[in-house]
């Protein structure tokens, strides 16, 4: 086989998805830390599974298949590894557009395009990760373009990826210390192996990735402005932020987004004529749409965003929560949307995007509350067409402190600065357990031992979670500490949590809250 067509591409991605799903648990176990939060395999499998499901909706037109595959990966992306994989697929698909058949040279160039876009998507690329593996694989593919037989070509690509994965511990010391290879790179390798099996004509049994994140529903408010007005402007000026400010007084539900040379505007207003007149100052009106919402009694979709509410407030909030107690706290603090998602159940970009659609606010502040969810939220932000601000929170207690201290009267710039200042003052203590033998910072860890972390860094181990928590907290407090909040997890009863509470004595307040988070006995906030 010297060329592959659209049906072969479909088979390759189906098989790649199925093989990765089959191996997802194996990838999950390649976590650097021995704590129960390794979900790289599940996240990558979910991302690819979602992409393939979108691909299946397409006809046999190559461009449609590639577009669906790319969009599905973007929407289905979970966790950092899923977001990076989605960018690889995006670049790969973009390079192969307008091809009825694909040669080995085309495939190699597509891999390189995917690698380039993935590197750009990461603010600080780290070598020894999936980025390195896909780049090594792509570089090797370019050397193999004289090979016309796709099976031989793919075998050599898989070999190159496998060798790159084996080298990852030499590039990233934490991998070598943990005696594992990079999980993202291994997941990418498994996808390629599945693709090779498809080229060989082999079938791989289908396994389904469990999906589903609960999202809080918002109520639909009464219609305040009559006309839903949309216009597409062939822009002379790209200063669309100025345009947004100029039409702000005309209504609400304002969305102004740039798409190449066009500006797309959506607004609910009682003065559509004034809006159109203002648009003409920026360029020619390519398309205009005005709907009377009171007559239609329906929501209007603009750029795939449903305006579920018509009252627009200044600030809206979305938070990712690992436990029922935490979710209740976020709701009590005025969070509009709370999405379930802890260490082993990261939400997808679509989950976040759907949540953003439900919030009708000028500015939406998002708290990922997990370092593995930040990139997913950023991806959803880019797809939303709304003013979204993703805060780099790595734990829910940072977000709770930020919301408690939030000033609704502040400007958005001051609000974001205040939030970042607040979370910088929060020290986070986490108490969990080891799921395998390993070495952390020179300390031997055995399966089942209790582990303590401060701001994500391992500090100590023990056999009793209350005693370990007490020791770490007392070492972490300073003369500036004014309050300690203990969030106890699902596996800790209130009685046990109160015992810990009574052992922490200092000149300040100590508060006890039910968090309900799984896997972590305690998350303790020191401020």
UniProtKB/TrEMBL annotation:
<dbReference type="InterPro" id="IPR050270">
    <property type="entry name" value="DegV_domain_contain"/>
</dbReference>
<dbReference type="GO" id="GO:0004371">
    <property type="term" value="F:glycerone kinase activity"/>
</dbReference>
<dbReference type="Pfam" id="PF13684">
    <property type="entry name" value="FakA-like_C"/>
</dbReference>
<protein>
    <submittedName>
        <fullName>DAK2 domain fusion protein YloV</fullName>
    </submittedName>
</protein>
<dbReference type="InterPro" id="IPR036117">
    <property type="entry name" value="DhaL_dom_sf"/>
</dbReference>
<dbReference type="InterPro" id="IPR004007">
    <property type="entry name" value="DhaL_dom"/>
</dbReference>
<dbReference type="InterPro" id="IPR048394">
    <property type="entry name" value="FakA-like_M"/>
</dbReference>
<dbReference type="InterPro" id="IPR033470">
    <property type="entry name" value="FakA-like_C"/>
</dbReference>
<dbReference type="Pfam" id="PF21645">
    <property type="entry name" value="FakA-like_M"/>
</dbReference>
<feature type="domain" description="DhaL">
    <location>
        <begin position="7"/>
        <end position="197"/>
    </location>
</feature>
<dbReference type="InterPro" id="IPR019986">
    <property type="entry name" value="YloV-like"/>
</dbReference>
<dbReference type="Pfam" id="PF02734">
    <property type="entry name" value="Dak2"/>
</dbReference>
<dbReference type="GO" id="GO:0006071">
    <property type="term" value="P:glycerol metabolic process"/>
</dbReference>
């Amino acid at each position: 086989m010297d060329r592959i067509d659209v049906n072969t591409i479909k088979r390759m991605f189906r098989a790649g998805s199925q093989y990765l799903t089959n191996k997802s648990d194996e990838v999950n176990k390649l976590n650097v830390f021995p704590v129960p939060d390794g979900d790289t395999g599940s996240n990558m499998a979910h991302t690819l599974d979602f992409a393939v499901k979108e691909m299946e909706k397409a006809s046999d037109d190559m461009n449609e298949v590639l577009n669906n595959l790319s969009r599905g990966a973007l929407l289905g992306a979970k966790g950092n590894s899923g977001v990076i994989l989605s960018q690889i697929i995006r670049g790969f698909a973009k390079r192969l557009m307008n091809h009825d058949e694909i040669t080995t040279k085309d495939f190699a160039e597509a891999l390189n395009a995917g690698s380039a876009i993935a590197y750009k998507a990461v603010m600080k690329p780290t070598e020894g990760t999936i980025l390195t593996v896909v780049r090594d694989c792509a570089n090797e593919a370019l050397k193999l373009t004289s090979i016309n037989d796709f099976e031989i070509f793919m075998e050599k690509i898989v070999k190159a990826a496998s060798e790159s994965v084996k080298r990852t511990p030499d590039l990233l010391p934490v991998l070598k210390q943990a005696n594992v290879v990079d999980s993202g790179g291994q997941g990418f390798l498994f996808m390629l192996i599945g693709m090779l099996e498809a080229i060989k004509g082999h079938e791989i049994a289908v396994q389904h990735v469990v999906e589903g994140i609960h999202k809080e529903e918002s109520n639909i408010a009464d219609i305040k402005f009559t006309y839903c007005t949309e216009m597409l402007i062939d822009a002379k000026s790209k200063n669309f932020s100025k345009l947004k400010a100029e039409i702000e007084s005309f209504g609400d539900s304002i969305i102004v987004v740039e798409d190449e040379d066009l500006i797309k505007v959506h607004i609910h207003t009682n003065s559509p004529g004034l809006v159109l007149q203002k648009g003409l100052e920026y360029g020619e009106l390519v398309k205009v749409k005005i709907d009377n919402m009171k007559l239609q009694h329906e929501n209007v979709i603009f750029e795939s965003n449903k305006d579920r509410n018509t009252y627009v407030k200044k600030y809206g909030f979305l938070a990712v929560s690992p436990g029922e107690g935490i979710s209740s706290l976020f709701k009590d603090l005025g969070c509009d949307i709370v999405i379930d998602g802890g260490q082993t159940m990261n939400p997808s970009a679509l989950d976040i995007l759907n949540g953003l659609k439900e919030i009708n606010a000028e500015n939406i502040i998002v708290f990922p509350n997990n370092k593995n969810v930040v990139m997913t939220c950023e991806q959803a932000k880019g797809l939303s067409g709304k003013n979204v601000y993703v805060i780099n929170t790595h734990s829910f207690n940072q977000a709770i402190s930020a919301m408690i201290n939030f000033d609704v009267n502040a400007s958005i710039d001051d609000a974001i600065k205040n939030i970042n200042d607040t979370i910088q003052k929060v020290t986070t203590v986490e108490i969990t357990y080891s799921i395998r033998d390993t070495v952390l910072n020179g300390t031997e860890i055995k399966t089942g031992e209790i582990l303590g972390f401060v701001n994500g860094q391992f500090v100590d181990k023990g056999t009793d979670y209350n005693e370990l928590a007490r020791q770490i907290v007392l070492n972490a407090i300073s003369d500036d500490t004014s309050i300690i909040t203990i969030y106890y997890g699902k596996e800790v009863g209130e009685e046990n949590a109160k015992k810990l509470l009574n052992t922490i004595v200092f000149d300040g307040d100590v508060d006890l809250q039910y968090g309900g988070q799984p896997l972590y006995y305690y998350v303790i906030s020191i401020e």
